[in-house]
Amino acid sequence: MSTPKTVSNAGDVSVADVSDRTKVTPLAAPAGTRTPPKQKARELAAALRRERPDYAYLKSVFRALRVELDVQIPRAPKRLPYVPSEDEIRRYYHTVWQARNAGDIVLIKTLLSTGVRVSELVKIRLSEVDFDRCQIRVTAGKGQKDRIVPFPGSFKEVLALHASHLERSGATYLFESAWKKRYSDRGVRKLLARYVAAAGLTQPISPHKLRHFLFTWLKKQGIDDALIQPYSGHASRQSLEIYSRLAIADAQHEYDQVIGRFPV
């Protein structure tokens, strides 16, 4: 058997050496095929284990990795919330009024005129309603913050009669059942939905929709955001400073000036 020949004029490189140098490196996986996530996680874990990572470290690593790979975070476009029209609100409230359920009328009127969240509404105590100033104190609202919300002077008598009836029965909250249990978020939502169906409206009206309607309507009346914010309970980093300097009496005056034109 003949021995392998060497390549001449190539520094006496053997055929075996040439074979080693010309081995084909495996190509990367075709586009669209990826290592299964669990397998890739195991590979990354093997590389990271010696770092003894905690959550904060892993979060920082993957944030840096995203930058290295130029991976963008997909963000869904923000959609404006649906706000009922004045005509829809009139139809809705007319249906509520026709039902002649005094408790339901007071509840929906309170939502409409104060813009409180449903989670705040069901926690309002009778002692937190100030009939002299036409204001309600919201205690530990969203973000565990307290605030004052107004209601129209024209609503004072109806609300006072409702509260007086509850006080005589030994109630604690502004909206309670006959069994001395405060209303639930779910119960309020179901109540509102029942009147939506009765009014024949195509769009649902939730407590938050009523809240949107009030603040949109106040904005249309020319009331400045800085005056709406103390009532809405919204927080804005850019406007916190100016909001903190505004007196609640200023906002009350602006509210009283326009609320008489409210559609219901």
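^ that was protein a. below is b, sequence first then the tokens
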Amino acid sequence: MLLFFNVFARNEAIHILIINNLQTIKPKKTMRVFLIIMLAVAPVVAYFFPANAQETGGNTTTGDLFSGYSRPITYNRMIPPYALEVTFSKTVHLIFPAAIRYVDLGSADLLAAKADGAENVLRVKAAAQGFSRETNLSVITGDGSYFTFNVKYAEEPLKLSVEMADFLHGGNIENRPGNEIPVFVSDLGGESPYMVRLILETIHKNNRTKIRHIGSKAFGIQYLLKGVYSHNELLFFHLHLKNKSTVAFNMDYIAFKIVDKKVAKRTAMQEQVIVPVRSYNQVTGVPGNRDERTVFALPKFTIPNDKQLIIELMEKDGGRNQTLIVENADLVRAEVIDKLTVKVK
């Protein structure tokens, strides 16, 4: 009986009470029945009225104690934090591999903000001089990377400018573990930034020509749309710029616009600008007798019959501008990307 109670009973007070009764009361038949009932009821009472709740006040728990059943987090699921020192009289700058999308400060002892004119540089300093308690800092970047820091105060921090990188995986997507949970960002339609980058790289590396009837050629410059691809809520445009002249072509900007096919005179043109959410190998210029290819990722869209997609490439301080016209029929025939094969070099 005592062995049964030690295995299932959770309330220490009931445990002591029963043992004392077993030692002092004569073993009469009625008392034996009473003790058997108490042994059966004790686990139920202990479950609904745990002693820990009375000692710590309500449902508050401390240390390794939790109310109810809890599964511990193993160390192989923990993201190791970086150690960071900050001070009151100097600013620490953290340079991340992509634009910063989210910053969380563990306490009011820290001040942090993106550097003016830079999307991937974070300024961090102490809000109060000589704060004693350690705090933390978390950052999420646009490429889906997650960084966490344990931060403490130091009068003279050794590292004032820190370049963050994916030290664990060498910066290569192919080297990342298969069980890693990616960080999703809203502008990619719920898609993983790693998957989007993988698609962009693969389209560029394969260099296949899926479209042969959309292009522009003038003044020794040829601009081609080589393919349109679709993956979930994104469209991918593979563009090829050839400079067959001896004069370098410096790009001013490239724009994706949905415009009316026919515009009556004295009528303002209605246009909708589609902003790319990611790009791969986006260059600012092409030297003479050279060519470059770029892949853009855009939010998925379709075009009404009375409208068309215009891709404009404008030359900086020049007139060799290029324009591509894409119909809705070209978009709906976009090649669906279901499976990608990446060769590791």
